[in-house]
Write a structure and sequence with these properties.
Length: about 180
């Protein structure tokens, strides 16, 4: 796992090789449209499914793996987490998914990792400065994504629209409260 700050603000990071290749390879073989799902709270009108994690499913291996990387993530972000365990929502976005510029509310730290090779790089997440200029674009690329230390300036969006047949699968991981080191 590589964690690289995108600029000198040190509150937004590029993540590469987030999960082991064997997990990513297994994810590519799954039929996620057949998974049980629920609506994501606060996003009930979006073309998005929050997949239900069950013990026998590959998506249930993501959080235990991330829990083994807690120290590495903490060191890279220069924070101390209050909780030792993470919790991820697994989101399956489908046509005509798009997402307007927004903030993520009260979440202290969140990480989104793209998991499925079924959408182009233009379907990643774009972060903006307060003057609406682009701060950084995270392309939709399998096993990459971002971590953000949330705040009043973390504006982001997915400005493109998924076309029929395209899917965007991602883990959205909650780390809970933290203290700066």
């Amino acid at each position: 796992m590589k964690i690289i700050p995108v600029d000198e603000q040190h509150n937004l990071f590029l993540i590469e090789d987030a999960y082991p290749s064997d997990i990513i390879d297994q994810i590519q073989e799954e039929d996620f449209l057949s998974y049980e799902w629920e609506l994501q709270e606060g996003q009930v009108d979006w073309p998005r499914r929050k997949l239900i994690k069950k013990p026998h499913l590959i998506i249930s291996e993501l959080d235990p793996y991330l829990n083994t990387k807690h120290e590495l993530i903490s060191e890279a972000l220069k924070v101390k987490f209050v909780y030792e365990a993470v919790d991820s929502g697994i989101w399956l976005d489908y046509s005509p998914y798009t997402c307007a510029v927004h903030l993520d509310g009260d979440l202290p730290i969140a990480m989104q990792i793209y998991l499925l090779d079924n959408a182009g790089p233009e379907h990643g997440t774009v972060f903006y400065n307060q003057d609406q200029t682009v701060r950084y674009t995270f392309p939709y690329k399998v096993n990459t994504g971002y971590i953000m230390l949330n705040g009043p300036d973390q504006y982001h969006a997915v400005p493109t629209t998924l076309q029929p047949g395209e899917l965007r699968l991602s883990s959205y991981t909650y780390f809970g409260p933290f203290e700066h080191k």
